[in-house]
Structure formats: structure tokens, C-alpha cells
Amino acid sequence: MSSQQLCVPVPIKDKEFLAELVEKGKDWTLLHGIARRSKDHFSHDTITFAPFLLFPSTFPETEFKKAKKIQTTLNQLMHTVAHDHQFLLNSLSEITNVDPFMARLVQIYQEILTEGVTQKVSLGLFRSDYMVDSPTGTIKQVEFNTIASSFGALTSILPNWHRQVLSLCGLHDKIDNIPLSNTLTGYASGILQAYDLYHSRIRSKSFVSPAILFVIEDNGFNVGDQRLLEFEIQRQAPHVRVIRRSLTDIGNHLQLGDRRRLYITGIEIAIVYYRAGYSPAAYYSELEWDARLQMERSLAIKCPSVQYQLAGSKKIQQELARPGILEKFITDPEELIAVRDVFTGLYSLDMNDPKSDDTIRLAIDEPSKFVLKPQREGGGNNLYDEDISEYLKKIKTSEERHAWILMDKIQPPSFKNYIVRPGFTEPTFSDVVSELGIFGVTIGDFEKIILNNQVGHMIRTKESSSNEGGVAIGLGALDSVYLQ
């Protein structure tokens, strides 16, 4: 793993100045909403700051611009894939035999197709994640997120702190190297454009305007990112109500009215925005699964619709990397090359496939070259190093192979930086690596895309010794891009 230089010389030798920066950073993030509730001591009355990097992380400007430029092409790709029913079902057919969660999502999708789709419009708030590959110096895609793509709000604010840090360090001439992000306003605007589309096409039977529903986790701790988006929606459209409910609450209070209008405790819902429901943990019983089915059957616009969620699965990402598949969905030669260029090696583990058998043998012998991924979102699910060898030995003759894919392990450059975490008196000075995310918004139906925008970026950083980097699961930290 190669190393690169931070924009600020580190370590900071003036310990008093370092302590002052850390203290200011904690207060600044709290006072600007870069906050969450504690997972260990959850309370509705207290928040703490989200983990953050003291200094912004260096990222190559050419690769940053490449990632931003390609986002609308990827948005279009995911939309097209999501509406190719045969491709989705064929690609996921083997997984449904061994992965009950994916099987239920596919079952809902098939039920909707069989009875007829009530609401053909889908809203997508996407994020495509990348790491720089040290051997080539180019970005490679880690994954494409189609459900609960988080931290767009918090990372729209954090660059202002990092610009202030550079000023405090006397680096006024470098401030413009930290690009601002408009994800918060872009996401809110996208939701409201979908809301207006619903409102213009569906005349409400009530004198009260329909609401936007945030589907949330029970005792969700990522409150800052969600509430900032809610408040930005209401800043842009003060007349629009936003309500927050868990899947369990929805299951207990959901009703479908005429034309399958969706009502929650009597409130008509125009937009269903999922910040939960991406993992089995959200579905405690049949009540939650039925709530998901009824929302999919409803007239409300879903973000994402079930087909968008399926299109964002790891298996679809792997299928698109197969030779000749991408060409079915992207016809422009330049766009095709650009997308293919950011793909890394992705490998199927299907049974009765000699190539898959060869891949498994190689991964067992050289596990450090790969990441083993299940069909899950939310972080903390992948396997690395010797865990790959042990697990593949266990499942190599089992149908369970179908539930996983292998990906070449990207080798990003590392650098020294300070991670500031709640509960720690001093920042952690460590070798770290970064992952860039580019946000996109789409609105479209079976026939066309109505809106297709790139709306900003984020970067999160973790210690280089950590395989997983999810901020939500406590392993990564929020950061800002410093272009070089």
C-alpha cells in the first residue's frame, strides 16, 4: 500500500495547538448538526458529534472529476437495469434459494409485476463509492448504493469546518482546494420534485396536502443526517409535512384507499423514503414484511422502489461486470469505456461453473487479494483475509455459494491523519485510507428518466488496519476532499 502526503504537515508538534483544534472541531460539528445519538447509551435527549477527520484528506483531482462526470451515466444504468425485469429475475434466481432476505424482496417484486404496478414512477437517491487503486492511480468502484444512501447531509456541511481548519493553520491559499458539496439541497430538491409530480398527477381527496414518509429504524442513531434532510425539505417547501415511522409502526397503522392511495394514521403519503429496510434486521415479523409489500403496492412514489433496491445488490454489480453484459444497457461508446474503466474484478461463485471453481481455489490460496461480499447493505458484512479461506472451504460444495460474490481487493494509498471520536480525550493519529462517494438523483418510470442529476460528494476515512469503513457501524469517520 503506497502512501501520500496530507495538506497539513503532521504530526502537529505543538500539542496545545492540536488540543485547541480538536476542541474547536468537536464544538463546531455539534453546533452545525454533524451529530448522532449514542448507540451504547441511546437517549432522545442527548446527541454526540459524529467521528470526523481533523484535516481534509488528499484526493487526486482528475479522478474526483471523473467520478462526478460518470455519475449520471451510472444513474441511467441503474434505472435501466431496474426496469429490465428478465435480467433482474434471471440474475437473482439462484440467490433466492439460499438467501431468505433477497428471496422476500424478489417475491414482493414478482407480486407487484403480476398484479400490475400501481405507481410506475420511482425516485432514486443514489451513491457510487470508489477507492483510488494505488498500482494504477485510478478510481475503482467499491459499490453502488440504491437504498438509504447516507451522510449526504452531514458531508455537505463538514467542508466548511475543514476550510476553517486550514485558515487556523495559516493555509489560506489552500482553502479553495476543498470543494463544497450540494448533496443536502440536491437530495431535498429531488424528493420535492417527486412530491410535486405525485401532487400534480394525483389530486388529493383531503384538504391537507399529502406528506413525505421517512421509514426509519427503531431508536435510529443517525439522527443528524436524517433530520437535516427533513429540515432542508421543509425550508424549500414549508407547506410539505414530513413524518417519521418505523416499519412496525407502519404495519400497525397502514391503510390503502381508493386507487391504492397510501395512508398512515389517516395521513395521505406521496413519497416513501426508506432510511431502513435494507437488511433483515428491520423485519422482525410478517407485520413488517406486509408493510413493505403494501407500500410497494400503493400509489405513493417509493425511494427506492423494490426494483431499484434489487438493482443495487452486489450480485447485479457482479453480473454487469461480465463480458458483454454492460453493452446491453449502455450504447454510447465513450460512456461504455468510462464505466468499464471504474469496474474492478468481480466474480461469480455459481455452482457448476468451472470458472467459479477456479476463482474459489485462488481465493482460498490467496485470500488477501479479495473481498468476499454477501447481498447486504449497512456495513460489517464482508469477509477478508483468512476468514475468506475458512468460509470458502466451508461452502465450496454448498448452494450457499450463490449468496456471495468475490471482488478484487482495491489497494488505496494511505496517509497520516487524526481521527476525532466521541469518548476519546485525544485524537487517534494513524495511517488511514479514504473512500469517495458521489451522490445522484433520478426520477423515472418504465419508459423514461424524468430527472437525472449528480448532486455532490462525500468522503469517509478509516484506519488502514481496518477492513470495514462504515461510519454508521463505528469504524469510519466523516471527512472532506482536498484536491491535489
How would the blueprint of this fold be written?
Layout: H1 15-31, E1 35-36, E2 48-49, E3 52-53, E4 57-59, H2 61-82, H3 85-92, H4 100-115, E5 122-133, E6 138-145, H5 154-168, H6 183-201, E7 211-216, H7 223-236, E8 242-246, H8 247-253, E9 254-256, E10 262-264, E11 267-274, H9 286-297, E12 301-303, H10 306-311, H11 314-320, H12 333-342, E13 346-348, H13 354-365, E14 370-374, E15 383-384, H14 386-395, E16 404-408, E17 415-420, E18 428-444, E19 449-463, E20 476-479, E21 481-483
Parallel strand pairs: 4-21, 7-8, 7-11, 11-12
Antiparallel strand pairs: 1-2, 3-17, 5-6, 5-18, 9-10, 10-11, 13-16, 14-15, 14-16, 17-18, 18-19, 19-20
Percentage of residues in strands: 15-25%
Number of helices: 14
Mean pLDDT comes to 94
Give the distance, in angstroms, between the N- and C-terminal Cα atoms.
19 Å
- Oligomer status: single chain
Shape label? globular
Summarize the structure.
36% of the residues lie in helices and 24% in strands. The chain is α+β, with helices and mostly antiparallel strands.
